[in-house]
Design brief:
The protein is mainly alpha-helical. It is 92% helix and 0% strand. The chain has one domain.
Length: 156
């Protein structure tokens, strides 16, 4: 047998095998590899997008928390200010009520003083009449001398 013929036969068989593989096997394998490569690239891109979106969400969450803290601080400051105003209003109302009570008490005291003076005036008038009776040793008639007693009472 001739070595050259065997090598030529093997070369023809190898060329047919290469043609068959290129025509029917290589194209689907290449397409599958490209699809797999594209799928991996898409997955990596989606992962990067997800990571980026996660970072953005974290920044947004920080912003929302910062805004919430600021609003809470503002609300607390407003509440404290309003509380101070309420306390001041209550103090003012208490002062007004105290002043009103003081004025009422002063008016009542003045009335009591007036009543006491009137009562004392009447008592003094009675004592004056009694003293005059003692001095004159006779009874002074209050009805007869009402005008005189009234003038004495006014002088006192």
């Amino acid at each position: 047998m001739n070595v050259n013929a065997t090598i030529i036969g093997q070369m023809i068989t190898f060329i047919i095998l290469i043609w068959f593989v290129m025509k029917y096997v290589w194209t689907p394998i290449t397409a599958a590899m490209e699809a797999r490569s594209k799928k991996i690239a898409d997955g990596l891109a989606a992962g990067e997008r997800g990571q980026h979106q996660l970072e953005l969400a974290a920044h947004r969450a920080e912003d929302v928390l910062r805004d919430a803290r600021e609003k809470a601080s503002e609300m607390i400051a407003t509440a404290e200010k309003r509380g101070g105003q309420i306390v001041e209003q209550a103090k003012e109302q208490a002062r007004v009520e105290a002043d009103r009570l003081i004025v009422g008490a002063k008016a009542e005291i003045q009335q009591e003083i007036s009543r006491a003076r009137e009562s004392l005036r009447l008592q003094v008038a009675g004592l004056v009449v009694a003293g005059a009776e003692q001095i004159l040793r006779r009874e002074v008639d209050a009805k007869v001398h009402a005008k005189l007693l009234s003038s004495i009472e006014n002088e006192i």
